[in-house]
Amino acid sequence: MGKKSKYWILLLMSLLFCMPYLGQAKKMIVSDRVGDTWVEGYDLSFRDSQNNIVSLNQLKGKVVIINLWATWCPPCLAEMPSLDQLYKDFSGNNKIVFLSVDIDGNLKASGKFLAKRKYSLPLYQLNSALPNALNTKSIPTTIILDKAGKLVNKHVGGMNFGSQKFRKSLLELSRE
Q1: pLDDT tens digits for 139-167?
Q2: Helix (H), strand (E) counts: the chain
């Protein structure tokens, strides 16, 4: 069996394991539970390869797209070209922020991976734990927050970022 055939079989098997988790999240405020109360505005932060830290609190007023992925994940690799194209297409919209988050936290290796494929996505790693509302056990996972920091969508599994319906919804969110 050829290398290409093995890749496609691995991709299909990975998709089968992700299927039970596919779905859309309810709209909710990104928060975490402390005792008997909810604390809004959880300070989730990310680190880039230059050790700059970006927190969700700094991104209020912008639509935030967080894509959790890894270089060894076939469904992640399958969706990466359309995610990169989406990033390029919306790069002129300063109301939308993309956070491509390598869950392995090896920014040097994932940076080489992106460069080899000529992807332009901004690369980050988690700098703090994901709050319960955003946590996942599967990748890829794409999280979309509106300008107020409310969870609009949490999609576990591969996505088609080239969908016109998705692009239109993203544009509408950036205008709200």
Answers
A1: 999 999 999 888 889 999 999 999 999 99
A2: 4, 10
Q: Please, which residues bridge with residue 141 across strands?
A: 68, 156
Find the distance separating the first CA and the last CA of the chain, reported in whole Å.
51
Given a contact cutoff of 8 angstroms between Cβ atoms, the answer to whether 142 and 170 are in contact is no
Query: What six digits make up the tokens of 150?
Result: 């409310």
User: Measured between alpha carbons, how far is 98 from 33 in angstroms, rounded to an integer?
Assistant: 26
56 in Cβ contact with 42 (< 8 Å): yes
E strand or H helix at 63: strand 63-69
Burial of 85 from C-beta contacts in 10 A (0-12 / 13-18 / 19+):
middle
For residue 16, the 8-state DSSP code is: H
Span 29-69, pLDDT tens digits = 344 443 333 334 556 899 998 999 999 989 989 999 999 99
The label of the residue with tokens 């928060």 reads 31
Count of residues in the chain: 176
Q: How many Å apart are CA 45 and CA 156, to the nearest integer?
A: 20
Angle of the 3-18 helix axis to the 74-89 helix axis, nearest 10 = 80
